[in-house]
Recover the amino acids of this structure.
């Protein structure tokens, strides 16, 4: 090679550019939740995982197979996708207890030399990287509310659903009456409403014209 007669630094830099990452693996570590059943479902979210595929499998485990608990885990760039999957499942099922644990995990990256020395052995480099990791347990059964990272179930039904249920409990005539226009408010209430809807602040002083930039 023409670079053999050069200095050590240029040769090293030239050779490092020939390395390509060929494999990434995670160090196996136990889940940070005590007293988990041995057959608990763990959804290992990767950077390239499809959310639709993950949710189809997870929902089948919880609804069709009757699993009581499920764990979502991800590290590095997959942390955000892991949280997204958890929020989708909480909205779909409702009534789920949650425990979140954040820690660090070690990734092993293997880099292979694409231009080895003639007649020499293959040169590989193994890189150890510590990246943030998240593990989230969702459970139909109650969990210890005193443990770190616990979140109680969120209300499954919104205001619209509650109003719909209230309408179903009433008679047919009453349900139809809910759809009729309300009587006009008295003059005093109308005056107060207009005062609220038309504030005295200068035009354009609000924040409605500002739109968040989602293209970071």
């Amino acid at each position: 090679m023409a670079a053999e007669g050069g200095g050590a630094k240029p040769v090293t830099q030239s050779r490092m550019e020939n390395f390509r990452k060929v494999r990434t693996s995670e160090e196996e570590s136990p889940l940070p939740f005590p007293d988990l059943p041995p057959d608990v479902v763990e959804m290992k979210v990767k950077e390239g995982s499809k959310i639709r595929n993950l949710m189809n499998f997870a929902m089948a485990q919880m609804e069709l197979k009757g699993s009581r608990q499920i764990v979502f885990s991800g590290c590095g760039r997959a942390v955000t996708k892991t949280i997204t999957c958890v929020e989708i499942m909480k909205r779909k099922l409702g009534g789920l207890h949650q425990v979140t644990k954040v820690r660090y995990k070690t990734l092993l990256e293997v880099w292979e030399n694409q231009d080895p020395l003639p007649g020499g052995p293959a040169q590989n480099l193994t890189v150890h990287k510590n990246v943030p990791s998240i593990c989230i347990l969702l459970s139909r059964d109650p969990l210890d509310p005193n443990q770190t990272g616990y979140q109680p179930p969120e209300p499954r039904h919104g205001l619209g659903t509650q109003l719909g249920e209230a309408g179903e409990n009433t008679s047919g005539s009453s349900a139809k009456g809910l759809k009729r226009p309300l009587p006009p408010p008295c003059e005093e209430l109308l005056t107060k409403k207009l005062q609220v809807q038309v504030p005295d602040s200068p035009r354009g002083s609000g924040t409605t014209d500002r739109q968040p930039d989602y293209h970071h």
Notes: The chain has a mean pLDDT of 74. The radius of gyration is 29 Å.
